[in-house]
Structure formats: structure tokens, C-alpha cells
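This part of the workshop introduces the protein records we will be handling. A record pairs a protein's sequence with a compact description of its fold. Comparing a sequence with its C-alpha cells is the quickest way to learn the format. The record below serves as our worked example for the rest of this section:
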Amino acid sequence: MDTPYQYQLLPELTSDEYATLKDDIAKRGVQVPVEYDESGAILDGHHRVQICHELGIDDWPRIVRKGMSEAEKRRHVIALNLARRHLSESQRAMVAAKLANAPAHRPQESGPIGPLTTQPEAAEMLKVGARSVKRARVVLEEGTPETIKAVEEGRLAVSRAVKEIRREQQRERNRELVEQTKPPETLMPETQFATIVLDPPWDWGDEGDVDQFGRARPTYHTMTIDEVRALPVKDLAADNAHLYLWITNRSLPKGFDLLEAWGFRYVTMLTWCKPHFGMGNYFRGSTEQVLFGVRGSLGLLRHDVGTWFEAPRGDKHSAKPQAFFEMVETCSPGPWLEMFARSERPGWQTWGAEA
């Protein structure tokens, strides 16, 4: 029986490694004996056997290992391959993760033979750190077949794979949150608002930066500029209406474009002066802007308010100060709508994933 004992544990040879081995066997034959257990399953050398079949070689040197326990067989196979093959730490971590606390199956049987080993023992056996083994288990349990294969073949580090898995999981949660932020049917088209406050969850990738957020990256979903532009602001706004669009200094050009796309003319900019520095690729931001636009000919309710205000930061990332909403309520008439609200607000219609 030519069944490989180490099936699904150790990674296959790369195409180049396989070609090199095949060329050597074609020239010199099998130099390292193939090892079998008592049942005829291959302990070590299934690539050599496969190549012999391909080359039409009917016989090769063999060794039969007798009286070995399942754990001893595993350790023997792993020791041989670690000594012979140059596996990366990530590849060794994947082998250890498969060994650790997982039920084994003999190739010729369907039933489990019990846990192979503990995670610390597997990490020691494969000469790899415990953290790498934990990451490898995440890859095995949550990664796609393509991701698992990439790590096993040494094309992707296990740490990078976990980051990609977590990022894709976040993207999936984001997609669900984006669906939740669609305006309820009760707002369209029966209700139209004289005042709209909008704080879009910007996708900063539009700016061409790798990560503008840095440590402050939010946990909520983001939207591309095209998705923000497609929001039904025109339908939600009354013929005479005010729009307050929150925007960072970096993205001001996008904000002017959005006002025009939604049918508002830009009037002025309000500035929130924060008590402490924030993040920034160049200058560290200490202000945030609100573009004020008007649709129709709706004036302000009062004319003694300046274009800047001071207020502390909120307790949530990107949360806006209460002082801003108090100013809006005294300057712009209702009904009021806050889009992408972080919480409910008395007297306002709010919608968003967190409201």
C-alpha cells in the first residue's frame, strides 16, 4: 500500500523541488529508502514513490518500521522532514497547529485515533513559537482554502494571513452595517427635512494613503466616495433646506463636490477647534470642518453665531460634540435629520448602524 502517512500534515513539495527530485531519481534512482509502517502506509517518501510511478520504476529501496505507536510515527516523520526540508516558521506552525489538540485519522480508516498532542508539545516538536501556532490555528479554522494553501506552500506568512482573515471578516461586517445604514422607507419620500446633518463614514483609501487612521482606525464600516455621493440626500431634503456636512481638512475637495451633487450651494465652513492634537500624515490635526450648504433660500434663525466653536472630543471615535447640535437647533429649523448618527437625539430623526 502506497498511502502517505503524513497526508494533510506536511506541505507538498513545490513544483521546482518536485522537478529537481524527479530529475535526480531519473538519473540515479531512489537514493533514500522509502519508509513504511507495518500496515504498508508510507511514513516517509511518498513523493519518491509518486515519481517512481511516473517514471515507470517498479521497485525502490524500502524500510519497514515496526512496533511504533501513532505518536512515535508522527514524531519520526516530522523529524525526518525538518532535517531534510527548509520549511519556514509559518509552514512549521501550520504543521504544529494540525497536530495540536486535533483528532487524527489513519489514512486507511475513517475513525479517529484520539488527540495527537498538545499545542505546547506540537510547538516544541516543530521548533516554532506558541504564538505562531495559535495564528496557524486561526488560518486553519477561519481561512479560505486559498489562504491555507498559500501559507502551507510558504508563499504567505501566517501572521499576514491572520491579518487578511480578520480584515475580510471586518469587510463582511462592514457590508452588513452598510445595509443597516440605508434610510428606512418611512423617510422617503413622504418626509422631507429642512435641516440635515451628515457625517459619512469615509473610506480614506480614496485619498491614496495606506492608512490615514493609524491607531485611530474606527471599528465601524466605511463607504467609498461614490457610495456617499449616491446617498438619497436630494430626496430627503426639502426644497428650502440646510445641510451640515462633516469633513476632515484632507477631504475638503470631496465635500464641495458632494454639496454640488446633492443640489446644495456652498455658503461657508464651520470649524470645530479641539483641545488636543489628533493624528495626521503631515500636520497633526486639531480641527474638523463642517461644510454648510443651502438649498433654495432658507435663512438662519439667528445671526450672532461665528464660524468656529470649541468643544471636547466625544467618548467614541468620530463622535461629534453636543455643542454643535445645540448650535444647529438654534440656527436651522426642523424637522432635523442626522444621517449616520452615533446615538438617538431628542427631537431629531436619526438613522445609522449605531443609532
Observations:
- The mean pLDDT is 79.
- The CA atoms of residues 214 and 314 lie 19 Å apart.
- The longest helix spans residues 158-180.
